[in-house]
Amino acid sequence: MSSTPIDSKEYIGQSGRKYRIERVLQEEAFPPRQVYVASADDQKFILKYIHTVNFDDLQAVNNRLCSNASHVRLAQDTIPEKSMFAFEYFADHLLHLAQKDLPLNTVKRILKDALLGIAEMHDRDIVHTDIKADNIFINWKSHQNEVIIERRSPEAHAQGPVNKPSDIFSFALVCIYAIHKRVIFAVGEEELEEGVDPLAIIIERQISYFADEDGLNGLLRFLGDNPWVRVFEVIRDGFNKDNPRKPFSLWKGVDEDFKSLICAMTHLDPEKRVTAHEALAHKWFDGI
């Protein structure tokens, strides 16, 4: 993550803590986006601008979780006049750390703790809406050529239009990335023909990797009169012997228990997708 120095500034949080800005991680005028590394009381924090429209909602989410959610990255303080939240500083995120040659059980521990955080939010009817590898924050250190994981946590987001099963599907993609270092829905420019919407390619891969007749029919019922239903139907009908599906359940070199977990989390029918607690109880996490 790139960063630049910044002229010294000091913000005072509602707690009375004085934050001294050290570095700019992100700063954009439109849409407004500000993320700073700051120090206070010999600790590091992340100060993050929250759009004023979302500030009260996110504060309410934070308040609902603060008393009994131990696996979610929550705001430690707020700076209302700057519309900022102060978060505990984490050294890294899973998008970067997964590129290291980590032991399998270490990766499983990270994923299980992240899933526990999702379960804590879902238990309170809070939907994350933006689950991805760089939103799973991790503190780690190197010791005798080993990576020691100290703490890991997904960041809480305000409620949005997606639902709990959407979070679980997104988390399954994070798991695939963490274990196999593949972003399976990423669409490169070289794959795009003129006039083709990248989303159409993503839908084609969703159907190819994770659909069966029951799941796809359930998804179409769930979508109702959504205009994307017709797109799903056209893409579904485009598979044939010359353009066969490539089900994840048949991929080579993938552990069978991991396949089972991923297929349960990516069932196309949201009503049949496993919950966070059901995923936590899966055999793949045994002993973690």
TrEMBL record:
Pfam family, one: Pkinase
One example of a Gene Ontology biological process annotation: mitotic DNA damage checkpoint signaling
UniProt keyword Kinase, yes or no: yes
PROSITE patterns per UniProt: PROTEIN_KINASE_DOM, PROTEIN_KINASE_ST
UniProt KW keywords: Kinase, Transferase
GO cellular component, one term: nucleus
GO molecular function per UniProt: ATP binding; protein serine/threonine kinase activity
Transmembrane segments: none
Keyword Hydrolase listed: no
Protein kinase domain span: 1-285
SUPFAM superfamilies: Protein kinase-like (PK-like)
PANTHER family: OVARIAN-SPECIFIC SERINE/THREONINE-PROTEIN KINASE LOK-RELATED, PHOSPHORYLASE KINASE
Name the UniProt record assigns to this protein: Kinase-like protein
Annotated organism of origin: Aspergillus coremiiformis
